[in-house]
Design brief:
3-stranded antiparallel beta sheet; mainly alpha; 3 strands; 167 residues
C-alpha cells in the first residue's frame, strides 16, 4: 500500500476539481510524483457503496483514456472476450484479483460484493477503471487494462503536473 503523503489530498482536489472522497491510499504515482490513481474504500463515509477501488485522478491520464475509449477499442475488446477463452479466463482472474485487493481492507459491503469495476469479469465498459487497476496492480494482472495502457500516449511527458499545480 502506498501511503498518502502531505499535499496529496490537495493535489487530488486540484486534479478532480472537487474535494476527494475517502482516499484510502495512493494506488499509483505519475512520473512527476503526483498521485494518478487512488484507492477508495467500498463504502464512502456518507454510507454510499462504492465498488471502484482503483480510481484514476490525473486529468492528463483520464483525458488520454477518454480519447482511447472513443476510438472503439472497448467494442473490439468485448468482441475478443466472446471469441477468446484464454483472454476471458485471464480477465476473470483480473476481476478476482481486484476483489481480493479491495477485500483486503476488511470492509464487507454487501451491496458491492462480487462487483469489481470496468465491466469485469465478462465485458468492458470503462477503460478508466481497467487502466487504473493495471497501473496500481502492475503488469500482468489485468490483460485488457495492460493493453489499454500500452495504447496510451505518455501523458506525463509534456508539461508535468508539478508545473501545472505550482503555476
Amino acid at each position: 500500500m502506498k501511503d498518502v503523503q502531505p499535499g496529496d489530498l490537495d493535489c487530488i482536489e486540484f486534479q478532480l476539481g472537487r474535494t476527494p472522497r475517502d482516499v484510502h491510499a495512493i494506488g499509483f504515482r505519475c512520473a512527476c510524483s503526483k498521485p494518478a490513481v487512488v484507492q477508495t474504500p467500498p463504502r464512502l463515509s456518507d454510507g454510499t457503496p462504492f465498488p471502484t477501488f482503483y480510481y484514476a485522478t490525473c486529468p492528463r491520464l483520464t483525458g488520454a483514456i477518454s480519447t482511447l475509449e472513443s476510438s472503439g477499442l472497448m467494442a473490439e475488446m468485448n468482441e475478443r472476450l466472446t471469441q477468446d477463452p484464454v483472454l476471458a479466463a485471464a480477465y476473470a482472474k483480473a476481476h478476482e484479483a481486484y476483489l481480493v485487493d479491495r477485500d483486503a481492507l476488511g470492509l464487507n459491503v454487501e451491496e458491492v460484493e462480487g462487483i469489481s469495476a470496468g465491466g469485469m469479469p465478462d465485458r468492458v465498459k470503462c477503460l478508466h477503471s481497467l487502466v487504473a487497476h493495471s497501473l496500481s496492480a502492475g503488469p500482468g494482472v489485468n490483460p485488457l487494462g495492460d493493453e489499454a495502457l500500452s495504447k496510451l500516449p505518455q501523458w506525463w511527458k509534456e508539461n508535468p503536473c508539478n508545473t501545472e499545480m505550482n503555476a
